[in-house]
UniProtKB/TrEMBL annotation:
Provides the precursors necessary for DNA synthesis. Catalyzes the biosynthesis of deoxyribonucleotides from the corresponding ribonucleotides. It comes from Mycena metata. GO terms for cellular component: ribonucleoside-diphosphate reductase complex. Keywords: Deoxyribonucleotide synthesis. This is Ribonucleotide reductase.
Amino acid sequence: MHKTILPKFTDAVKTFRDVNGNSTLTADFMEAVEKYQTTLNSAIVHLRDYDHTYGTISDMQHRMLNRHNGRITERIQHLYMRIAVAIHLQDIASVLNTYELLSTRHITLDAFISAGTGTTGPMISTSYSIALFNSHIHDMYDAIARTVFAVRRGGTASIAAQKMPCSGRNVHCQHKDCNIGLWTLMKFLDGAIAFTRHHEDLRTDIVNIAVEAWHLDVRALIDFNNMHQHELADHKSLTTTICIPDIFMNRVDENEEWSMFCPSHVDDLFNLSGPYFDQAYRRHESGTTPCIKIQARELWHAILRSIILTGGPSIIFKDNVNGKSNFADTSPACHSDLRTGMIDPLAEEDELYPRNHTSIALPLFVTRDGLFDFEKLHEITKEAVYLLNKALDASMPQLLVRLDRNRDFRSIGVGIHGLADVFVAMRMPYESLEAAELNVQIAETMYHAALEGSWELAMIHGPYTNFPESPLANGILQFDFWDAKPMDRYDWPGLRDRIRATGVRNATLISIGPGSGGYLSSGFTDTTEPLPSNVLEGEIICPWLVEDLSILGIWDDDIRANIVSAKGSIQHIATVPANIKAIYRTAWEIDPKSTLKMALGRAPFVCNSQSISFHLDSPNIETLGDLLMRAWSSGLKSGLHSVHSRFPEHRASVSSYEDADDSDREMSFDDVVVSSNSP
């Protein structure tokens, strides 16, 4: 790239042209560039491009860097400067600060947002929430239009369908809206996204549809997952989420009946959680409300089987979320992003509000002495909060629908990636006590920094609108919901008092979830997951491992070939010492319960939620069910984002739907029930 692309940032921005030769960058962006062109050009440090691996450079060339007439026209450092200018415009000090954070890889943004930032097309926000309230054809078209609006601009969309009436044929519903149902919506939406992708370069996994476990059309959601398993694996557009209340999990555990309703008949259930939900639910099922009754384990096993087969749906535990939520003054939070890392209350009708999140590269805080720099992490986390708030403000004028809800909450998500790399660098096995302690210390540091940064912004701009009704206004912090005691590193009582007096700018701040590809530009592992393998793309062995084996004098071509043939494992190699094997144990060799323990350790300092994925060689209903039961009973808000399996032949087979008629398609739980004695 350096041989063919001019070094000046101002030269690179001139290449952003459409087919007619017109600039595709916004007028405000170009005005800022022209005013500060000398400063911007001199701030670029092109040598930092060499900090990236070949794989990350290739990924950035494919997904982030600008092209004109098929040729890449900007360098990596130009991309970082473009993002900084787009967010801050003529605030040159903030532009240069954000450039440094991105250029040094301390902070990464979503890949597709990075690609379009500063242009007249994609927006700065990462994901958007949409609620669908009924199945009128006009409202369905409107929801799909808002969804396409979001994804065409580089974002993702999550649709809350909890209030959407089910298909009328299920319970002989006489409600005027009971005529389309969730199945038709999903087919309709899948087709709209496929059509859009045909004309534009869109990511996969761009739209999520969520319903609650009592919704009668939850069966259609499961059915859709199963039927599209092969298509979804190669060209996935839709993902799904089921929001599960405590009463359902209790009935699974006790092997009791479960009642399923059309939202048209139970319009109070989605506005309730906890004991209020339980009371209303029991009243509906014992009264005259039309419903279908099945064994709770039948639905539970259908969900588990679909997860094993397709990797989804994701699972959210409704009462765990709302029992520890800062949205106590609103309707229950059960509307997540695609990866269950951010969970918010339902959007209002006709509303499209953005969620902004970024990810911090943890390995960059490991010092040369093998220590972790918590002070630097605290500083960078606050910078991330400032950046996301500025990005949120910058995205507002680009939206064409009302944003009252988002202006109230201003939810942002500061996440992390590279935790497994940190453990390797500090010589800690993933399952060790030292790693567990560091995991908690990192989460606590980030939560304190994020709260402090948001409080500082509230001192300048005021708190978010609904702050006075929130638990934070009463001095209740996230770890108070968990009865957890923070360490003495920070002045929590002082911060609590300052927040109670002044407020914070954002309702939620910390969100742990996959980074939509942005983490790839850093070269580190995704989010908090263990090492996926010791073999990287292109059969390159993990550099840390190569260094350790070289020091031991056992690195050679034979051991390299041995590692590659074992799909990245070193556990079978006799010459490798036990302590090295422990450090480089992969996600496939680590007990998934350890992943849950890590998530539980962080949980008191994650004020939104965290995405949890399991790596299971041979997933089955008993194993997966046990993991999710543990997640729920431990109080985790998100039970599951996805299940990864290396061996598809171990996945359960499902009935062929190829010749079935879509109009008569309905889930048969008889096909998915396994031992009724297993929760």
